[in-house]
Amino acid sequence: MRILLTGITGYVGKRLLPILVNQGHEVTCCARNLERVPENIKSHPNTKYIAVDFLDIIPESIFEKDYDVAYYLIHSMSTPRGDFEELELLAASNFRQLMDKITVKQVIYLGGIYNDIKLSKHLRSRMNVELELKKGNYAFTALHAGIIIGSGSASFEIIRDLVEKLPIMITPHWVLTLSQPIGIRDVLKFLLGVMLRSECMNKDFDIGGTDVLSYRDMLLQYAEVRKLKRRVVALPIMTPRLSSYWLFFVTSTSFNLALHLVNSLKVEVIAKDNELSKILDITTLSYKEAVEAAFTKIRQNQVSSSWKDSLISSQFSPDYPEQIEVPIFGCYKDTKKIKFKTNPDKVLHAVWSIGGNQGWYYANFLWKLRGYLDKLWGGIGLRRGRTNVDELQTGDALDFWRVLLADKKGKRLLLYAEMVLPGEAWLEFKIRQENDKHVLIQTATFRPVGVMGRLYWILSWPFHIFIFRGMAQNIVRAANKK
Known about the structure:
The protein is an alpha/beta fold. It has helices at 11-22, 39-42, 84-102, 121-133, 154-165, 184-193, 215-225, 240-250, 255-265, 275-280, 287-299, 344-352, 364-376, 450-480, and strands at residues 2-5, 26-31, 47-51, 67-72, 104-112, 139-145, 148-149, 168-172, 178-179, 182-183, 203-207, 213-214, 231-235, 332-340, 397-398, 401-407, 412-417, 423-434, 437-448. The relative contact order is 0.10.
């Protein structure tokens, strides 16, 4: 089949794309920034790529005609560009108009369960997007999911953060709200199963796992899977804003995302029926089975997508490709060059392993302190870590940095700071050959804003002297040990 897939750099889209390709479908992929497409899929002969932003008017000429199926997996929750409800509705409207022009047999949408009269802003936006997409001249199928449990999903990672770090959890009262979680494996089965199924045309379905649980139950059952003893105490005194701050400081979520999640967590999300499971003959996983499946991927270092790599994990501008050109004028720079005799691929591997559990190769306690301070100042801190132990892709989150460019062939890694700063910061690693010797070139660039920006660089400069030198030297030493 000929398939149009949006949201290919998002949590679900990044997992759906390889399956579609492996099944032999011809997939046209849409993304704002094609550099974020996974390298293992990018060169596949069954894929085509179109750089497109559905917040703009889309020229139909850049698309082919007559697709069998189009997946709409675009979400803008926590975007810094404006009110996400308006943006989601605008993107859905532009998509619908495009589909009517290029002709598509079926559009499949993944939204949220909204069977409560009083909806959160998040769930109301999902419902409005669905109503907009229903207006199109095509068969329409909507799947409504509750929280998704899988390695790297926002819900799973928040639960993981809470249980792994807190023996006793003093929680907001919303932990008693009921929900019906679903494993990411089952979500993908449903998304694939409804393709061109006549029984699924022009219908919407709630999808959920086998268990209806409170969030308290999910925390405790996660602890059972991990063989941890945990206690959960719910307090009725926490306001939504206080609850959001609690999630923000304890977990790796951004404050904007925490605020939207808290408002949604107060609403019960329980699937109305299991009709689609019967139609497609799918037996869904229990909550514990979904958690165990997630940890299987984590242990094997095979987490193929993470919410942290999405732009909702920070206040970062979606126009970040413009930052790839590191500025020259009006900047402070610190450049370190380390010559080495080791195989350059080993040094490159050491560079690609930076951050996360590996740390930053020198004075990790100072990096952690900077992360704590960043969290106190309203930033993201170091808690996002990294998705994979030794692999990086353009667009990935890396502690409080974002990967702007991960070019192994060109031996260049470029990071952009997402921490709270009175300016902008880049950290670049390059391996070059100079006078028949290989050289690791590490460059920190800071573009200050105002007097505070300049003062920040001056005050931090003494630390940079030994931190950046030690980091570059230890990267080469780490490579020598392998």
